[in-house]
Structures are given as structure tokens and as C-alpha cells.
Amino acid sequence: MTLPPFALVRPTTLDEALRELTEDSVPYCGGTELLLAMRAGLHRPDALVDLKRIPELTGVRAGDGMLVIGAAERHADLATHPLILERLPVFARMEKHIGNARVRNQGSIGGNLCFAEPKSDVATLLMALEASVTLVSPGGRRTVTVEELIVGPYYAEKEPDEILVDVRIPLRDGLRGAYVKFQTMERPTVGVAVLADDAAGWYRLGVGAVGEVPLAWSFGSLAEIDPDDIASRVDPTPDLAGSEEYKRHVTAVYVRRALAKLEQVSS
Amino acid sequence: MGENVVGQSVRRPDLVEKVTGAAEYCVDVTMPGMAHAKVVRSDRAHARITGIDVAEALAAPGVVAVVTAADIASLHARFGHIITDHWILAPDKVRYYGEPVAVVVAETVAAAADAVELVRVSYEDLPAVMDAEAALADGAPLVHEQAYEATGDESFKNLSHVDEGDGAQQVPSNVAHEVTIGWGEVDAAFADSAVVVENTVHFPMLYAYAMEPYNAVASYAEGALSVVSTAQHPYMVRDDLARVFDLPLSRVRVTSPYLGGGYGSKSYTKVEPLASVASWVTGRPVKLTLTVEEAIYTTRVDSAKIWVKSGFAADGTILAREFDVVMDSGAYADNSPLVMAKTVNRCFGPYRVPNLRVRGLSVYTNTSPASSYRGFGAPQGALAGETNLDRAAEQLGISGADIRRRNLVRKGEEILPGKRGIDADIPADLEMVVESLERDRKDVPYYGIGFGCTASDAGAYPISTAQVRIQIDGSVLVLSGSTEMGQGSRSLLAQVAAEELGVDLAVVKVVQSDTSVTPYERTTGASRTSTLVGLALQRACADARSRMRDMAAELFECAPGEVRDRPGAVAAPDGRELDFGSVVRQWFGGSAGEVTGVGLLRRDGATQKMPPFWEVGMVGVAVEIDPETGVVAVDQLVTVADVGFAINPRAVEGQDLGAATQGLGMALHEELVYDGPQLANANVVDYRVPRTTDLPRKIDLMIAERRDGVGPYGAKGAGEGTLNPIGGAVAAAVARAVGRWPDRLPLTPERVWRLMNRD
Ligand SMILES: Cc1cc2nc3c(=O)[nH]c(=O)nc-3n(C[C@H](O)[C@H](O)[C@H](O)COP(=O)(O)OP(=O)(O)OC[C@H]3O[C@@H](n4cnc5c(N)ncnc54)[C@H](O)[C@@H]3O)c2cc1C
Which residues form a coiled coil (chain A) (predicted)? Predict the structure, then answer.
């Protein structure tokens, strides 16, 4: 389909952007999802409010035990960002393998979360990392966890007048992490994140793309993670990439592969 | 052998403009005063149209007209080059989801798209037949209640070489076309066989994905029609359009700029009638550009279910083969009858088959219409024939190479009685493939090698014409009605002309595919351009040279027979030389004029026997399987291009790698899936085509040059052959890797995992 006509608004401050938002005037960042939805006739806003020129939504910084990533940051830049490579290499590697070159060079981390595409790598790893996001509306500012934000397929729990400003990831010294995904089509069939902070006895596993929303669990040790048990906890969506039975099977395979990969990662 | 320009991998003239995006494709073409069309399509598989309300759409801003079947009832509103069953706009009922019901013409694409939503079509649902089995069942609802007149396309008979069913169906049914071939005493031979092997394969429903979707811009004015479109065969489209509007052929002009890929999907008529009738109704030029989704609903590839049975002597010699082919051809016949006719010719392979029986049914269903696809029935047929042979080898306890060595025909032997004998050394090609595969065989678990051979009656019907026009500066225009769709025909034809005339390649310019300017060319398909246009062009060059000699004789004041040919020039008996430009200038006087050479090719002499040449498909693959996920990685791809002589070796390699990669797509990834009346994956995100990262680890593209073709310098065509045996080769490799035989493509990870884990 052809893109229907729309107005493009390009605010340069967060306040200005917030004033522009209405039901029919929606945030627009990389457009990788939004424009497709508009072309498919699923969505027909009157105006797009471009968030890319708002300074508050850009940049990557570390402070207060947090890595803070601006919502408009693009996958390709995050994959090579020195601070992320140094402090959270597992995140940089995940970003490097998202979608395709066009999606990585255009799509933003904030857009990824707000669209809540079930086959996301970003949400899976962020959920395992116990990350949260900052949402700002004309009424104020709030912080919610990624787990609270991503409540359903294509459904992020946020108000239409809220803008996702940044993503906050708690930093842990000596964190080891691995993210592996099984992908045969355009998007992952299953993605598995496994994280270990041995000193703190903190272990997390995230599984995404296979069901409607990513899931993440905490464990007391890596040995507690039973791949077959995890496979029984997910609720796979059957589609052209595989049946429910097959997806459950490859979930167990990839949990095993994630654990094997983690073993090779030194802190 | 003394050639200078042919045989070289010269750089194609369209390379830079295509890479930089400067090249003009049809989608870039505009006409002054042009309006834009969007198509209202059926949202159900099979339904009677009870009303079309266009009032609201007509009232929408920017809308010029809404065209329905009623508006074009005075035209011959159907097309189809074999069976004219294809309604331009559904008149009384729709036969598949996505079928055009109306065309909205508006000032902008957006206005047209919006107004499409406002056209209210009311339907009364009819029971649908969504696959061939349902369509053939007793009492199945009919897709077409009526029979249609044949177009009288003479050459279809010659091309198909089969006993056609008696055509006029007595009882209406969903059989669009039926063909049988055979010889010998099949049943007796089966009774005498030491081993009989029987199996059934399923060939997937595919889309021949080309980057540029169908599009056309048409202008009907003052009793003439001019269309620029993505037509692979502009002359064939011209003929269909002339019939629709009852115009003399000279008043219909079809032009095809560069095509963004075709692979068969752009052969024959597609969107040209829609754009043309929209222009006829509105009196404005009209542009229609389809989306990929609409393109998939315009033409897909025939899916097939093929049962095959072969009988062998104890040493592996084939005694008899039998095939039963059922193809799901969708709602309209398009080119499926020819695809079917080719399948029955190509399924049993280049082997000595003393007793043969093949039956083929092309079946109407309420799905997107199927038509040509690279390989024309050979990919479907070979999947059955070749996997059957490999299964037999396993049962006979001999290798896949040995069973083929025992049965492959030698050069000159006929595989179709009365047709041209095989013009290739296929056993030698097989050894090249096997040697390369075995050399790099990996000793790891879940590893398998497979290979396959096909021979296709290629070249299509040999009617070809070409012209060369020699200019006063000695530069040369080559005119051909063939189409450049990525295959590199412009450099090939330029090379032939430069060689024949002895001029620099840089002064030769090839002009193609304009029915009012370039001379007649039947089709650009069946791997024919290098061979058949090449021959016509050689003749055109000879004709131009002969005229040059006659003119030079006047200038030299000698007898024409005394004038000698020189590179780009002629020489008098006394040694005086005149280059072409000087001959033209001096003969006409006044530094103007040109000389035209004409080359005509028909079924005559070297091209009397059909087919003009055999296109050999010879490939091998090695696969490595991840036993936990079923993912198949292709470790080796080995191909042999048995082209007689490679006019441009790099172009041949490009064709082979492209065809093989497309074949790997069908073998491992591609399949259109119907979910109810509608496709579940009519887009290129969910319809998974091969990617760069899927490319095999080792790629060995070999060329066998034995100068055994009828074409220029002994050349034969390339382009389809390498795709044809890939499916069977991959299936065999997977079977050898996991110890079980698959019965269908594509071999997706889940299918392979299930094959391995089945009880
Ligand atoms: C072909 C393809 C393949 C892909 N493959 C993968 C993959 O392998 N893994 C993966 O994880 N993802 C994948 N994606 C998803 C990709 O990561 C997202 O499309 C991208 O990051 C979305 O960001 P965007 O800036 O383009 O969002 P946009 O399209 O601009 O916006 C998406 C939605 O979010 C809203 N929005 C955007 N930014 C904000 C904000 N800051 N605040 C509030 N609302 C906002 C918009 O209004 C819109 O509703 C793929 C996408 C495509 C198209």
C-alpha cells in the first residue's frame, strides 16, 4: 500500500513534543514499525511527531549504578557504543544482530519497546537485566520496569500522551551475560538471555520472541536452570516459523546453548 | 578459435547505471497528464458479484473514474495466450482472493488508494476449491462454468509435443489442461523389473520474487494504444492487447524498459490490460503499480503433487518409468498448460527410458493464478524423477553417480522420439560435479551429498529477428525485440555484433523491446536470447556486410564478389580499404545515411529440429544439518554450465549462481501458504527468499565448452538449467545426512527435525 498523507512535526524540546501529542498526532522515531503499519492501513494518524531532534532522548551515559540510554538511540549506534561495549558487552552484541542493516540504522531502542513487537530481542534482554524506562507526559514523569511496560503483543502499557525518554539498566560489576537467538525468518523464533553475577549470587534468564511477551526469571544458581522446565513454561505462538511443539523444543535447545555460551564468557 | 570479443567477460554496459540507481525502470516512467490507478480486489475466494456501488468512490476528492466489468463489456475483455479465460475485471463472479473487480482512477496514488476503500462490492459466497484435490473431487464446485476458445497459438502445439486432451471438454470440470505422453510397454516392463521404486513428492506453491512488482503506464488515444510495462515478452502482450481492443497490431505499441527481474513471472500479459482499459475509459494516460502483495496475487508458480514409479534391472538399468502429475494452476490458466506440457517432457530426465507413461493434469482452483517460472515445469518434474532415482540407487545398493552413469543418454541420442538428439556430453558433466563434491566432502556427522541432472527442451519456438544499423561514423545500432531483465543480454548481443562486424565493442549500442521500433521477437524466455537472437543477429551482420560489399563495389568500381571483408571495413582487390563509415558516407554522398542489415530466423536449417537446443541442468550440493534444530546449511554448491560456448563467461556464472540460489530458496525456504481463502505470507518478510548469509560455503561454478550448440560459435543458452535439479539434489543430500527420505519441499528446519524424529 501507499503511505497515506500526514503532517510531519519536528519539535526540538521535550515540552514542545509533549504539547503536540494527541490521539491523532503520534510519536515517530525511526519509523521502521510505524510507517509499515501506516502503509498496511492499520494506522492513520494525521501527524507524526518526530522525536529525533530532542536532546533528552539521545546519548548514552553511566551514573548511579545505571546505564542510561536515550530512547532515540539507534540499534547500530548502540552496537558500537564504547561505553556499552565496556560496561555491558552482552547488550552491544545483541544490538549488533538485530533485524537487518536498514532496521539497525533506522530503528530506535525506544521505538522497539513502545511498539512491543513480540519478536523483539531488545525487550527480552532488558527484562532479564531488570531494566526500567522513564515515561514523561504533560502531567509528569514516572519510571516503570520493562516487565511492567510490555504487557502484551503490540501492547505497551503507556498513555498516548507519554513519551519514552530513556532506558535505565542497573549495572553490576563482574556481570557475565550471553544472548543467543534462533532465527530462520526475518525475525527471531526464540531469543534467550542468561546473566550471572556470581559475587551477588544473582542469576537471570529471559526468553522472548517465542510467545506473546518475553518472560524472565531469577535463579539462585545456574544449575537451577532446567532447559526442559523452561520450555514448558513458555507459551509459543505457532506461525510460519514453526509449530508450538517445535518452538518449545528449540526453546530448550537454545536455553542449553545460552548456558553453554555463558560458560565461555569471563567476567 | 580466433574470436576476439566473444568469449570474453566484458563488463556489461548497464552495470554502473544499475548499481547507482540511474537506470530507468518501468516504474520510473511517466506520461504527460497521467492519472493513477489502484485496483479494487476480491476479498473472498469464490463468490458471485451481486452489485458494485461506485457512487461514494466517484464522489471522493481527486477521483476520475471507477472502471468495472460493465464499462468494458463492448471490448473483448479477456486475455490469455493459450486459453483466453482471464477476465480483465471479474464480470459476474470472482474466482480468487485478490482478483481485480474494479479499477479506481484518480489524480494521485493516495486518492486512488483511498477511494478503493469506498467501492462497495456485494457478493454472494460460493463454495470454493482451495487445492487440486478438492477441485478434482466428485461434485466439486466449478471455477469456470464455461469453456473458452483457444487463441490458435500455433506454436503451443509445437512447443509442447504432446497428445493434447481433445480440448473441448465434454463435461465441464476443473481440469484446465490435460496432457499425456508415453511409449513402449510400461506394464510389461514393470512386471519384468528386478526392483520397482515408487514415491510421491510435493512441490511447493512458490512466488518468483522479482524486486520490481508489476507495473504499467498506458495511453489510449486516437485509435492507438501505447503501453510501457514490465512485460518480459512485449510482442506477446501487444497481441493480447490488440485482441482486447480489436486494433491492428501496428496501432498497439508495447515498450519494456529495464525489468527489475522476472524469472518467468513477467512472461505474458499481467497488468497491461488493467492500465489500458482504464486509459480507454478515461481518455487519460493511466499508471498502475502493484505492491508486492498484489504481485503475488497476480501470478504465482504451479504447485504440484507427483507420483512416480520406476522399474529397474538388477544392474540399475531403467526399464520403465511412470509419472502422474497434478498441478494446482489457480483460477486462470495463463501459461500453466505449457508449464504442464513441459513438466511431462522433463520429469523423466536425460536417461534412456525404453517404456514411459506420463499423465499430467493442470487444475483450476480458487487461488492466485499460476504461470511460468524459471525452468518451466522442470523444477517440479525433476524433484519427482531425480529423488526416485536416488531412492532406487539406495535400494539397488549402488551410488547415485553409478545409477546415472548407467542410464544417462550419450550425445546424439534422443530422449523424446523425433526431437533433436541430445547436443551435450551429459556423462562428462556429471563427472565434473561428482569430482568437485567428493574432493571437498567433509567427514562430519549429519553431512550429505546430493546431485541431479535435467535436460530441458529449451529455446522456445525459433522465431527471431534482428537488425543492425551501421552509422556514418562506423558505430553500430543493434535492434532486438528481446528484453533486458538483468540477464546481461545487452553485452552479449553487443559482443556478437562487434565480433561479426569487427568493430570496437564500445561503438555498438543495443536497443531492445519496443514493438514499434525493434524487430519482432517471440519471447525472452526459455534461455533463448544468446542462441536464437544471437543467430538472427549474426545473419543481420552478414546481411549488412553484404550490402557494404555491394556499395563498396560501386565505389571501388569492381565486381561485388571481389570486395573483401575486413574488421570494420571492406577492401578492394587492389588493397584499398574503406571503413564502414566511409562506405556509407561516400555511397550516399552528403555525409549522411545508414545501412541496415536484417537477420531472420525460423524453423529451418539448423533450427528446423525442435527443440533448438537442450539446456542441461547439472548441479550438486553438500549439506550439513543441525540435528537439534533441523537447520540445513549448504556446505557446497557445484554447477556445470553446459553452454557449448560461453560468449560472456562471467554472465554465464552469474546466471548459474542466480538460478542455483533461487533453487536453494525453493528447496529450503520458500512456500506460499494459504490459510483459508487468503495467503498467510503474501509479503517478502514472511515469504522467505534466500539471503546473502544463506550462500553456500563453497561455490564451484564450472563451464563446459564443447561448441556443440546451434547458436553462434557453438553456444547454447543458460539461465534456467541450474535451478531445475536443485530441489532433488537437496532432498537427496538431506536424506543421506539423516537417513530418511523427505517427500516435500521446502525443507524447513521444522520439517527436517520432524523427519529425523518421526517414529
Ligand atoms: C524487518 C524488521 C526486522 C526486525 N527485526 C528485529 C529483530 O530481529 N529484533 C528486534 O528486537 N527487533 C526487530 N525489529 C524491530 C525493530 O527493532 C524496531 O522496528 C525498531 O527498533 C523500532 O524503532 P523505530 O524508531 O523505528 O520506531 P517507530 O516505527 O518510529 O515507532 C514505533 C512505535 O513506537 C512509538 N514510539 C517510538 N518512539 C517512541 C518514544 N520514544 N516514546 C513513545 N512512543 C514512541 C511510535 O508512535 C510507534 O507506535 C525488526 C523490524 C523490522 C521492520
Answer: none
A243 CB within 8 Å of a chain B CB: yes
Does residue A186 have its Cβ closer than 6 Å to ligand 1? Answer: yes
Which positions 182-201 of A are in contact with B (Cβ < 8 Å)? 182, 184-186
Which residues in chain A have their CB less than 8 angstroms from residue B110's CB? 2-5
Q: What is the pLDDT of residues A251-264, one digit of tens each?
A: 999 999 999 999 99
> Residue A157 C-alpha to ligand 1 middle, in angstroms?
16
Q: Are B306 and B347 in contact (CB under 8 A)?
A: yes
Geometric angle at alpha carbon A14, from A13 and A18, rounded to 5°? 120
Domains, in order of start, for chain B: 26-128+209-298 (3.90.1170.50), 130-207+305-407 (3.30.365.10), 417-456+613-759 (3.30.365.10), 463-602 (3.30.365.10)
CA dist B217 and B279 (Å) reads 9
User: Which pLDDT score is estimated for B526?
Assistant: 84
- Grid cell locating B757: 524424529
A97 touches chain B (CB under 8 A): no
Rounded distance, CA A112 to CA A95, Å?
A: 11
- DSSP state, residue B531: I
Measure the CA–CA gap between A169 and A3, rounded to whole angstroms: 36
| DSSP output for B603-669 | SSGGGSSSSSEEEEEEEEEEEEE-TTT-PEEEEEEEEEEE-SS-SSHHHHHHHHHHHHHHHHHHHHT
**Would you call A2 and B629 a contact, using CB atoms and an 8 Å cutoff?**
no
- Whole-complex ipTM: 0.95
- Cα B139-B142-B145 angle, rounded to 5 deg: 125
Beta bridge partners of A155: A152
Chain A residue numbers touching B111 (CB-CB < 8 A): none
CA torsion sign, B542 to B544 to B550 to B554? negative
Which CATH architecture fits A55-170? Answer: 2-Layer Sandwich (3.30)
Report the alpha-carbon distance of residue B289 to residue A174 in Å, rounded: 56
- CATH architecture, domain A175-262: 2-Layer Sandwich (3.30)
**Other CB atoms within 10 A of residue B59 CB:** 10
Is the CB of residue A249 less than 8 Å away from at least one CB of chain B?
Answer: yes
What is the whole-number distance in angstroms between the Cα of residue A150 and the centre of ligand 1? 13
E strand or H helix that includes residue B265: none
**Whole-structure pTM value:** 0.95
* Main-chain phi, psi angles of A240, to 5 degrees: -65, -20
Q: Residues of A127-138 as b/e, b for ≥16 C-beta within 10 angstroms?
A: bbbbbbbbbbee
pLDDT band at B460 (very low <50, low <70, confident <90, very high): confident
Q: Are B129 and B140 in contact (CB under 8 A)?
A: yes
DSSP annotation of B118: T
Ligand 1 pocket: which of A117, A122, A184 to mutate (most atoms within 8 A of CB) = A117
The alpha carbon dihedral of A169, A170, A174, A178 has a sign of negative
Residue with cell 524506562: A133
Pairing of strands A155-156, A163-170: unpaired
A214-228 tens-digit pLDDT: 999 999 999 999 999
How many Cα neighbours within 13 Å face the side chain of B74?
Answer: 3
Q: Please enumerate, as own/partner, the contacts of B690-694 that have beta carbons within 8 Å and a separation of 24 or more.
A: B690/B661, B690/B662, B690/B664, B690/B665, B694/B634, B694/B661, B694/B664, B694/B668, B694/B669
Percentage of chain B with pLDDT > 70? Answer: 97
What is the number of alpha carbons within 13 Å of residue B246 lying toward its C-beta? 5
On whether the CB atoms of residues B345 and B415 are closer than 8 A, the answer is no
pLDDT band per the 50, 70, 90 thresholds, residue B152: low
Residue B599 has pLDDT above 90, yes or no: yes
